[in-house]
Amino acid sequence: MAETWLVVGLGNPGPRYESTRHNVGQMVIAELAARRGETLRAHKANARVAETWLRPGAAKLVLATPNSFMNTSGGPVSQLARFYDVPAERVVLVHDELDIPFDSLKLKVGGGHGGHNGIRDVAKALGTADFPRVRVGIGRPPGRQDPADWVLDPFSSAERTQLPLVLDEAADAVEQLIGEGLLAAQQRHHAPRA
């Protein structure tokens, strides 16, 4: 029987936040669902979910976005992991990352939260930080702007022109991580851009 993977895009709920940098994880989930002709639907775990497949005959995917705010993502993620009986090593978190330049990706398993409260809350709720992460770079704010304000700002017009490519690559990275493993995905997606 095919393994089930839970792929969660972190962000904040509601129209006020949907186009902000902090919600790039949710944008990647939307891309993965669109590729499969799926729509996210309400789930009792305070999340929106689409059940689908990596490809026919391959791993089952549960694509999800919590309805909670970023800093309280752990509850919905842990409830979904229990509901679908998915161990932490098959819970993939897709999230924004200040310490990676915009239009770059990094993948890893485990490690610290780097000040990201969504990651901190999920690790606490799952009882481990050893889950795969697709970290989508949003870069640091210019000048003295507070990072807390930066992540809640919409992408700039220049970034918005590149954003579809970023989301496409991040979705590819999720698929490759699940289908071929972390190392193969890192080798492809950590390469410097041409």
Automatic annotation (TrEMBL):
Record-level GO BP terms: protein quality control for misfolded or incompletely synthesized proteins; rescue of stalled ribosome
Molecular-function GO terms, alphabetical: peptidyl-tRNA hydrolase activity; tRNA binding
SUPFAM superfamilies recorded: Peptidyl-tRNA hydrolase-like
Main subcellular localisation: cytoplasm
InterPro entries to which the protein is assigned, alphabetical: Pept_tRNA_hydro (IPR001328), Pept_tRNA_hydro_CS (IPR018171), Pept_tRNA_hydro_sf (IPR036416)
Transmembrane residue ranges: none
Keyword Hydrolase: yes
Active site: 22 (proton acceptor)
Discriminates between blocked and unblocked aminoacyl-tRNA, annotated site positions: 12
Residue numbers marked as site, Stabilizes the basic form of H active site to accept a proton: 96
Reactions it catalyzes: an N-acyl-L-alpha-aminoacyl-tRNA + H2O = an N-acyl-L-amino acid + a tRNA + H(+)
EC numbers on record: 3.1.1.29
Domain of life the protein comes from: Bacteria
Residues given in the record as tRNA binding sites: 17, 69, 71, 117
Assigned keywords, A-Z: Cytoplasm, Hydrolase, RNA-binding, tRNA-binding
First-level EC class: hydrolase
Subcellular localization, as worded in the UniProt entry: Cytoplasm
Cellular-component GO terms for this entry: cytoplasm
Subunit structure: Monomer.
Family statement: Belongs to the PTH family.
NCBIfam families per record: pth
Known function: Hydrolyzes ribosome-free peptidyl-tRNAs (with 1 or more amino acids incorporated), which drop off the ribosome during protein synthesis, or as a result of ribosome stalling.
Protein's name in the database: Peptidyl-tRNA hydrolase
Taxonomic source organism: Microbacterium aurum
